[in-house]
Amino acid sequence: MELLVASATGVMTAVGIYLLLRARTFPVILGLTFLTYAVNLFLFAMGRLTINQPPVISALASAYTDPLPQALVLTAIVISFGMTALIVVLALRGFLESGSDEVDLAVSGEGDAARVRTDEDKARLPS
User: Fold this and answer.
1) Nearest residue to 16 via CA among 39, 33, 2, 40
2) Global pTM?
3) Rounded to an integer, what distance in angstroms lies between the CA atom of residue 99 and that of residue 70?
4) Can you give the C-alpha Rg of the chain in angstroms?
């Protein structure tokens, strides 16, 4: 059981880091999601994996599982959902503004890195 959880955490971390290094926004979002899942699984495994044990100490229970990692993972899931929604909206806005989903918008071939100008920016410049 522990080997399976450790392997799953390692694979999700590796996939998340690989996707974070891509040059497009959608794989970066997926990479952050995989890293979030890996951290959540790691936090959950830190509370000792026990089966059929209550999370609350009682007189009838011979052992119990630690409820703190469960609460931390539940909170992390809610926060990561909100952050993923925010990142998706920002990526969509960036795509609509620039017309591309590339992470690096620098135009090469002009000595310095110049930013891509939209029609609004061109309209504001003096002729």
Assistant:
1) 33
2) 0.69
3) 42
4) 22
Answer whether 29's CB lies under 8 Å from 84's CB.
yes
Any idea which residue has 């909100």 for tokens?
A: 82
Residue 52: CB atoms within 10 Å: 6
* pLDDT: which is higher, 127 or 36: 36
DSSP 49-92: --SS--SS--SS-S----HHHHHHHHHHHHHHHHHHHHHHHHHH
Q: What is the largest CA-CA distance in the chain?
A: 83
| Predicted local confidence at residue 50, as pLDDT | 76
Q: Residues 13-55: pLDDT tens digits? A: 999 999 999 888 889 999 999 999 999 999 888 877 777 777 7
Burial of 34 (0-12, 13-18, 19+ CB in 10 A): buried
Query: Mean of the pLDDT values across residues 50-67?
Result: 76
Q: Name the residue among 37, 27, 44, 17 with its Cα closest to residue 81.
A: 37
